[in-house]
Amino acid sequence: MSRFNTVSVLLLLLIALAGCSSQTEQTGSAIHPEVDAKRALISITSDPLADPQAVNMGLTLAGFCLDEGYDVAIFFNVKGVTLPTTAFDATYQYLEHAPMTEQLQSLKERGAELHVCPVCMKDLEITGDDIIEAAFVTSKPKLFGKFGGDTMVFTY
User: Fold this and answer.
1) CATH number, residue 78
2) Whole-prediction pTM value?
3) What is the per-residue burial (b if ≥16 Cβ within 10 Å, else e) of 115-144?
């Protein structure tokens, strides 16, 4: 009798596992293709004039991520909000790299989204009219919509 119970338990376990397997297939990438999206969020908090190397590296990494097929969002916050503005010197560059505003335009053209923090803008008295055309004042839904379960985040 004990052998019969053991076989019955094993059969029930196999049936239960088979049911779980079909549920996993239903929530896979065929129904939710965005699950497999490679996402990168580059958070630029540094002042581009005070720490141009850090900001340039963030922009460079964003380009590398685009090269590798990532969906890229660049989030300008804290002192980083001074970069995507019309007041920022369009010729300013770090070492031999392209001017930072030129890099922003190129990243935008390649598909990166340029999010600017409205709270940080307010703190630094930057208005929406001050933001360059390639960038936009973001919101929680717009920014959080860029996150996935495996989003890479880099801060500069």
Assistant:
1) 3.40.1260.10
2) 0.78
3) bbbbebbeeeebeeebbbebbebbeeeebe
